[in-house]
Amino acid sequence: MEKRGKTVKRVVPFAVIVLLLGSLFFVAANTGSLKVGFGELMRGLFVEFDSDVATVYDLRFPRIVISMLAGAAVAVSGALFQAVLKNPLADPGIIGISSGASFAAVVITAAAPQVYFFLPLAAFLGGIFAFLLVYGLSWKGGLSPLRIILVGVAVNAMFTGLSSVLNSMGGGEVTGVASIVNGNISLKTWDDVGTLFPYVTAGLLLAVIFAGRCNVLALEDKTARGIGVNVNVLRIVISVIAVLLASISTAIVGAVSFLGLIVPHIGRILVGSDNRVLLPFSMLFGAFTFLLADTIGRTIASPYEVAASVIMSVVGGPFFIILLRRSKKYAN
Amino acid sequence: MQTKNRPVMEVSGVSFSYGTNQVLNEVSFAIEENKITTIMGANGCGKSTLFSLMTKNRTPDQGQIMLCGKNIQSIGLKEFAKQVSIVHQYNTSSDDITVEQLIAFGRTPYLRLMKGKSEEDEKLIGWAMDVTNVRKYKDKEVGKLSGGQRQRVWIAMALAQNTKILFLDEPTTYLDIRYQVEILNLVRKLNREYGITIIMVLHDINQAIHFSDRIIGLRGGYVEIEGNPQDVISGESIQALYGISLEVAKIDGRKFVLTV
Asked: A60, A276, B14, B42 - which has most CB atoms within 10 Å?
């Protein structure tokens, strides 16, 4: 009885989030001066050419798809970092991974815009560098959760600052640089989707494959070794997947904070902490949350746009403080 | 019980130091098959270090530890986990993992990525739950169990590894006396009924005497006493191990150290 109750309890959040994500997709496609009905949209997409639908398809669909991919990637990255660092406060934005990736992407964009296709790779290397920096500087015979956050905040501030310096040196007018620094996703095209899609899909797939192994990391390291798991190797593998997901999305949508923190956190409340369930849920919920942030950003100050990452910070910060204060676990 | 069984593990000439602090000094002894061996000694005598060396959590500076004739350094973690299971003193898990899920971790060395549980896995998980008497909690969250129940679950996880050798590091430390005895009786049952070779570290001298076939007493990085507890425990050996003079009484032919 108890078991069946649990299964139902897990299926419901999935069904709800899929429904919400589908509805939001439609709302987002219709947010703006051009409106298309559901039937019109479907017909325009699959049956015959419709100029309104074509415009929506070329201008709005890419950013919607990018928001969903990036949201899924950042949320899962956060969940992975939390498992690897045994730290519920870990978030690729807060610990500086995203800003490291962002800085590398900015450098490439400013210095050699012609090698645009290297952008994901550069961002990935930047993310890895930031991660090694945080990990190395936090290591003192062990990893204290608090020290990681503190070092991460410093690393984050440094890379964010460096990116701003580069942005200012270009007079804020090198559009590619500015759009990464400001997290602007209004000018994204299907090309950007093409850049993002393979890496994010690969990263998410790997995350799901390693979900069971992430659970093992919740045990003491000694205990995990005792059941034959090489904890150090496993940490490196999962960290690389997490850095990949955070960096790639940063290369396209800029650094996003709090998303990787809040989504898995709420996910744990709704579906539990088993990563085999939590990671898929975080994908859907992350996609939903970031698309929601982008859609709100597009409408709230229309005709101007507020970047989705800014919305995430404004809403995410207080939201997380509430979560912290309500949770018994971190109360002391 | 006095017959000499063949050794399943042999520690020979093992030394270990933390920096300049020599903790173990050419320690040698053998662990006999199908017996309960308890490592004991005062704080800082090297028993925890010895435990972590024997469980592949540290590497000896000198000497070697053999498992069935093979140096454990040359055995991979996964292979080692199929032959030796370990219950550490301090354990953590996510709070909402269920008892059955936690015990299933014991099957990890046999699992392959992306593959589900086999029939064999299910059978052994069920067996581990029955032996430790935790089946009735199988869907309960580990975070909601009492200390004694939780310790049985950790032992069940180790049993699911289906090994002939089980290490336990102070399995009774955080428990009150009723659960201490319950756990030690379980350990004895694992040995007597299922033929599992037990190696454990115990703090309580009388529990060590009562529940062990063999005792290895360490002092200052050396093996001070080794053998059947009824033979090797005496006022002198306790004095040597712990540096305190305690009376040893005999009740019904069994020795008790009066610890007050």
From this structure: B14
Domain enclosing residue A210, as ranges: 59-326
| Residues of A within an 8 Å Cβ radius of B | 2-3, 6, 209-210, 212-213, 215-216, 218-220, 222-223, 225-230, 272-274
Lowest mean pLDDT among A137-151, A307-321, B69-83: A137-151
3-state secondary structure of A161: helix
Give A230's contacts in chain B (Cβ within 8 Å): 77
Query: Do A139 and A232 contact (CB within 8 A), yes or no?
Result: no
Option in A3, A228, A273 nearest B94 (CB): A273
Asked if residue B165 lies in contact with residue B84, where contact means CB atoms within 8 angstroms, the answer is: yes
Q: Stretch B162-168: mean pLDDT, rounded?
A: 97
Helix (H, G, I), strand (E, B) or coil at A39: helix
Q: Is A189 exposed, middle or buried (0-12, 13-18, 19+ CB in 10 A)?
A: middle
Q: Is residue A164 part of a domain?
A: yes
Q: What is the pTM of this model?
A: 0.89
pLDDT digits (tens, 9 = 90+) for A157-202: 999 999 888 888 876 666 677 777 767 777 788 888 998 999 999 9
Residue A307: CATH number of its domain: 1.10.3470.10
On chain B, the residues whose CB falls within 8 A of the CB of A218 are 92-94, 97
Using an 8 Å Cβ cutoff, are B51 and B167 in contact? yes
In a domain, A304, yes or no: yes
- Dist CA B34 CA B180 (whole Å): 22
Residue A299 covered by a domain = yes
Q: In this structure, is residue A12 part of a structural domain?
A: no
Sequence letter at residue B72: I
pLDDT in tens, B74-131: 999 999 999 999 999 999 998 889 999 999 999 999 987 666 788 899 999 999 999 9
Residues of B in contact with A222 (CB under 8 A): 55, 57, 86, 88
Nearest CA in chain B to A217: B93
Task: Check residue A94 and report its DSSP letter.
Answer: T
Interface test with B, best of A215, A221, A227, A269 (most B CBs within 10 A): A227
Least confident interval from A92-96, A186-190, B6-10, B197-201 = A186-190
Q: How many folded domains does chain A comprise?
A: 1
- A96 in helix, strand or coil? coil
CA B233, CA A104: separation in Å to the nearest integer? 68
